[in-house]
Amino acid sequence: MATNEYEGVLKKIEELTTNAGQIQDEVLGEILSRNAGTEYLRGFLHGQTEKQLFKKNVPIVTYEDLKPYIDRIANGETSDILLAEPITAFFLSSGTSGGQPKMTPVTAQVTKNCELFRRLYESPVIKHFGDINQAGKRMELMFARPEIETPSGLKAASVSTSIYNESNFRTILPKLYTSPIETIFCPDPNQGLYCQLLFGLIQRDEVVTVGSLFASTVLRGVKFLENHWQELCYDIKTGRLSDWITDLGCRNAASLVMKPNPEQADLIENICNCKSWEGIIRKLWPKARYIGCVCTGVMRQYTAELEFYCRGLPLVSAFYACSEAICGINLEPLCKPCDVSYTFLPNMAYFEFIPVENEHDESIEMKRNDEDTELVDLVNVKAGQCYELVVTTCAGLYRYKVGDVLMVSGFYNNAPQFQFVERKNVILSVDQEKTSETDLSKAVTEAKALLDPLGFILTEYTSYVDTSSAPGHYVLFWEIKGKEGNHCKELDPKIMVECCSKMEESLHYTYKIYRKRNIIAAVEIRVVKQGSFEALMDYYVSKGTSLSQYKKPSCIKSEEALKILDSRVIGKYFSPKLPL
């Protein structure tokens, strides 16, 4: 990005955030003026475009409410069922954060917004780290999945795959990234990952940033490297690609750049052949300025291990977006993952917010329904309050519940800044208690602190409710790793029992009451062997999830996924006492 363009984008951010209220009204007005005559909106607005009528008559919906309309378009009916602008494709969500994959419409305006968004979220990063595109290359782990062709002829693909398919991306790829396009589109994720790491190591002196879309994928890459570094060094030393890489695209790409380099191989081997891999990313890519990946929300659980591997390199979560909507950017990329706030961009969608009450406040006897709650506009949210996000977009989503709960952390000019709290309705429940993603994360954070002084790290966890016996109870699967190579079998079982107790003490009021009344049985932690969560990821990838989009579920719903973890359990521990 040229200096004058970069300065212009920063000025644009100032204008957007200063005039947030006016821009929001303009965005909604444009959406309604274009689409009031569609089959969907006509039933509620009767051709009118007034904001108050929209808020009064158009219902708050979920994907299931809009799915029949989207399916009709995918099956060949015209897009004016839902929106006036022609649909050019569909975005496909991963489905791993709480349900089946969802298809959302893509239009020319959506594509235009995506390009503008990229420039907006990159500008604060450039401000702090310089123009990465001019300094060197990005070693970014990227994985595409095959497009799906709908009966209408329109293609459906993940957001990342759609980006990788763009001609502009393919043009800039060789100059800005270490990974050839063939490795990104390799149908075998493990072969693709091996080759991307190989090319990243070969070009290690040019790498100025390391990353992927999600923190979990960066960790997957580091762990894969931990298991394959000797083989990778041998390939670099001999200038030949391992025989198990059978993908012709990967082999052809390798043949163009690989040549024997024993000196580089020996250097990498000396770095990798050490007792502790603390700071390994910084050692292997010494010019890297930061790690770029989403580290907020469910990805926060990976930050401790990532910080171990990167030793001081900043973890940068640049933006907040999803398949359904573009939302906000991080104006302070140097802040810690736990402190990241996203400043909402008022030109990307029309945003409304449902106030969220404390689920566990015993003084609250009744919760308000969405229908009884007046939604709050973007500029009227209150600092410290939690809200569920509702969006209206140019792509035919009207008053659509995204499913994310956010907390207002402050304002930048007149635009609110939000911290991600949790996915709505991703909960554990044995009886009538409701334990949210945030509740679970807080309890795990308290419990895993007992491991730190002993030299162990909790690298992954997930949960499910076991009702095979009465009363039912919460089960946590933990994967634990020693900082200095110690094996988790060396961990004192008494510590794991203490972790169970600490979790129960840290859970909410309602849970504790139910435990004391024997409505819920004791928390159980099942320790699984190393690589168990990689096997879980492999399962979801085999079912069609892109490795770039994979988000480990906080609560396991799939019987097959549960079997994968249960078959790898090496220890079971229960809380021996009632919580205080």
Automatic annotation (TrEMBL):
Cited InterPro entries: GH3 (IPR004993), GH3_C (IPR055378), GH3_M (IPR055377)
Q: Which GO terms describe its molecular function?
A: acid-amino acid ligase activity
Domain of life assignment = Eukaryota
> Which key words are in the record?
Ligase
Q: Cross-referenced Pfam families, in alphabetical order?
A: GH3, GH3_C, GH3_M
Q: Which residues form the GH3 middle domain?
A: 342-423
Which GO cellular component terms, listed alphabetically, does the Swiss-Prot or TrEMBL entry include? cytoplasm
The residue ranges of the GH3 C-terminal domain are 439-560
Q: What family is it from?
A: Belongs to the IAA-amido conjugating enzyme family.
Q: What is this protein called?
A: Indole-3-acetic acid-amido synthetase GH3.17-like
- Origin species: Gossypium tomentosum
Q: Which lineage do the record's taxonomy fields give for this organism?
A: Eukaryota, Viridiplantae, Streptophyta, Embryophyta, Tracheophyta
